[in-house]
Design brief:
Shape: globular
Order of helices and strands: EEHHEEHEEEEHE
Largest sheet: 7 strands, antiparallel
Distance between the termini: 13 Å
Number of strands: 9
Structural class: alpha+beta
Strand order of the largest sheet: 2-3-4-8-7-6-5
Helix content: 25-40%
Number of helices: 4
Radius of gyration: 18 Å
């Protein structure tokens, strides 16, 4: 497999996803209003469009800070706002980690933290894009002094198309009632990832 710089990585977006502008100059306020109007549909209430525009603008600004290859706001039902965030990011070998392996990605993704709500669950998978590890994790966000906060669930795939670089697909959400469905969604998305090289 070629170097990351010579590769094109694609992910098939699910229905209901809004692609976030993660590169280049962008007027996020204008983009968010247009994207919200498009996602909400013709005749949608102005207050719904305004609320969705705020949420999409914040999602885009947040994603741009990490510079993923692709970032999506998953909005299957516009009246409920963003259900999940989906990002696909590169992980390129460097002097500290000269080789990217599934073991390395598992250590990276399944590392417990002081905000872990429960221990991470990891299992190996084989995907069209390469060998992978799937990791489910849950964190306590913004805990108070008693450790009480909002639970953020994640389902991630660390994928190794090549020993010099890897990919991390991460879906995150707070709507815990949708956990099983969002894990299934992430499983399906991981299978759509392709890596090609310009000839």
């Amino acid at each position: 497999m070629p170097a990351y710089s010579d590769s094109t990585v694609r992910l098939q977006a699910p229905d209901g996803a809004v692609s976030l502008p993660v590169r280049g100059a962008a007027d996020l306020d204008t983009w968010a209003r247009d994207a919200a109007r498009l996602r909400a549909g013709t005749g949608a209430d102005a207050r719904l469009i305004e609320a969705l525009a705020v949420e999409l603008g914040e999602a885009a600004a947040d994603a741009r800070g990490r510079g993923p290859i692709v970032a999506l706001s998953y909005v299957p039902e516009p009246t409920l706002g963003e259900l999940a965030r989906i990002e696909l990011s590169p992980l390129v070998a460097d002097d500290t980690y000269p080789e990217v392996t599934v073991d390395l990605l598992q250590r990276y993704l399944a590392m417990p933290t002081d905000r872990s709500f429960r221990p991470p669950e990891a299992e190996r998978r084989t995907l069209p894009a390469g060998p992978a590890v799937r990791v489910r994790h849950a964190y306590v966000q913004d805990p108070d002094r008693d450790g009480t906060g909002t639970i953020l669930e994640t389902c991630a795939y660390g994928i190794c198309p090549d020993e010099t670089w890897g990919l991390v697909l991460l879906t995150s959400w707070r709507a815990l009632a949708h956990t099983d469905a969002l894990c299934e969604l992430t499983d399906g998305l991981a299978k759509t990832i392709t890596v090609t090289t310009a000839r």
